[in-house]
Each structure stands twice: as C-alpha cells, then as structure tokens.
Amino acid sequence: MAMITVSRASISRSLPNFFPNRLSSSSNRNSAPKKNKLLCYADSSHTKTIRSEVSFCIGTHMIPHPKKVERGGEDSFFVSDYNGGVIAVADGVSGYETLHNWAERNIDPSLFPQELMANASCLVGDEEVSYDPQILIRKAHAATSAVGSATVIVAMLEANGKLKIANVGDCGLRVIRGDQVIFSTSPQEHYFDCPYQLSSEMAGQTYLDAVVCGLYSIISFLSSELVVYHILEKVSRVEVMEGDTIVMGSDGLFDNVFDHEIVSIVAGHSDVTEAAKALANLASIHSMNSEFESPYSLEARSKGFDVPFWKKILGMKLTGKTYKDGFIFLNARSDQVLCLAGGKLDDITVIVGQVVKSQHISLLAEDQTVEAHTEQETKLES
C-alpha cells in the first residue's frame, strides 16, 4: 500500500499522485501513457463481468503562515491509495503556544498534527478501522502522544463511488460536479472561530482549550471528549462519479476563498496539482489583503462582530490581532467590539482529488474465479 505523509512545509510544495484502484501509486510523470493491459484471459468456458470502479487522481499544495515558514507551519496531511483512496488534513492549534509560553517549554504545536496524521496513515488498512473514517480518527488519536491539539478531516473513497467523510473542527471539504458544489462540510465550533478539536490526553489540556476560546466555553469543554466523539459518529456519505472533484483543506483555504472561486479555479485547471497550487496561492494572496471581504470577515459580521455604525460614518475601522492573527473578540460593550477587515493569515493546505474511472474485470468459471484489472490510459502532465 503506497502512501505519502507530509508533516511540514518549509517551503511551498506540490505533490502529484495518481492512485488507480488496487494498483501501485508510484507513477512516473514523464513516462509515456500506459496502454490497457489485460493480466489474464478468458475462453468460452468463462463469463466475463466488467464493472466500473473509481479512484483518486490527487494533487496537493501547502503554504505555511508567513511567520512560521522557518519551521514549516502547523498543518499536516496524508494521502493513500488504499481502496479508492484516502485523504486527510490536520490543522495544529497554536493558541496554547501563545498563551502558555510553549516556546519556552520547548513544545512544538506542529508535532501533534504531524503524529496524528502519521498514525492515521499507518492505521488506514487496519481491520478494526474497517474503512470507516471516524474509527480511523479515533484510533489515530488514541495512538498520538505528542502535546497539543488539532482539527482534523478524513475522507475515504470506496471503489464503488461512495465517499465517507468524518471531521472535527473547521478543516473542510467540497465536492464539485460541473460548475456546482454539491456537498460541503460545515465548521464544528463551540462558537465562531473556536472549533472543536482533538487534543493530547495530558492533564489540564481540556481546560487550556477552554481558556483559549474564553471562559464561556469551560463548561462545555468539561465533557469535550464525549462531545467530540459524538461529532465523529456523524459520518457524511456522498455518492461521487467520474469527473467529480473533491477539494479538501485546512481553514486557511476556506477562510480566504469563496466556493465560487474554488469552482472557477478547478474548472480552469485540468491538472490537479496545478489546481491545488492555484487555490493555495489565491488563499495566500487574500489572507494578506486587508481590504478583501473574505469569507472569514463576512462570517464574523454575521455573528455580530463589527465596527459600530457611527464609527463607519466617520470612516473608522478597528483592527487587531488574536492568537491566529485574525479578529480580537473581547468581553466589551457593543461600541468597543473590534473587527479586522480582510483575509486571515494562516497555514494553508489544499488537496485536490479528481474522481477517475478504472475497470475491475472478473472472469467467472464453474469452479474458480480469476480476477484481472485494467488501467485506463493515463497521462500526468509534467
């Protein structure tokens, strides 16, 4: 089973991968297209059955937060060719680092999502996982010992076209068919900009999580593990078909790029690696534009975080920073609520998976079954 695990992005990077179902994922991008090759033959005593199967053609790209380039950011992901394909993203939460001087204690917030994804990549074929994304997340979480926390999303494509998605927090996924988004995940949050997350099982970790998001959330965090695992039980299932495109990413993508922009970029790039790179670059550009009306800023205003009307008349705009370089939310009077217009600086991870077709051929004899696979002609542009 071939797979790739990426933990950090010291520089922006792209990883092209083609994963035909049940075939090796090690493709030479510069090689000539492979011709269909029948691995066994049938005679008149056999009945040939051909059924279509699907898998992923995957492209990825990562851009770390401008202030975290040296250490590569705090996002992590993995992709696997198991069954129809598995893709996953984990976004390390760095609020603890700022509030509790993790740097002084030599604690790296990128290690938790890195280990979480490494464990998930090793467990993807485990019998107990049984190709269930929520079980995979649970088992990977239980095996993770690093200090920290992360939001996470996992999507598993079955060869019959069923896509199963489980997530905790605000990493997201879109399924695009033609010029429409036919499915999207929703952020799972205690309240705006305070996502549910998986954390290490060290004493006090749950409490620290509550402190990052505010005193209001301490009560809900007292049962956070039960809440998170209840969320994990809600696995989404989507029927996909050849030609559909799946876009997965950390909140650094979806906080800065609208769905219609995602659809447009996917439509404009036939190569999945180039599409992933274009999406990440657009998110990065928007994140640094203080005038851009981002999905994040619009959502904040819809939740009541905005500059008072009388100050808008005077042309005033209050700005500030939180631990994520975004909004400041304070327990203050209504005329003191701060709002930061523009995009949101963050680590950005993008995975683009195009659903492609392969064929599974079963040759049925009276006393035996012989299986063969054909690989469609595939060309990965360099």
TrEMBL record:
The keyword Manganese applies. Transmembrane segments: none annotated. One of its GO terms (molecular function) is protein serine/threonine phosphatase activity. Residues 60-355 form the PPM-type phosphatase domain. InterPro entries: PPM-type-like_dom_sf (IPR036457), PPM-type_phosphatase-like_dom (IPR001932), PPTC7 (IPR039123). Its EC number is 3.1.3.16. PROSITE patterns: PPM_2 (PS51746). Its cofactor is Mn(2+); Mg(2+). Keywords: Hydrolase, Magnesium, Manganese, Metal-binding, Protein phosphatase. It catalyses: O-phospho-L-seryl-[protein] + H2O = L-seryl-[protein] + phosphate; O-phospho-L-threonyl-[protein] + H2O = L-threonyl-[protein] + phosphate. GO terms for cellular component: chloroplast. Belongs to the PP2C family. This is Protein phosphatase.
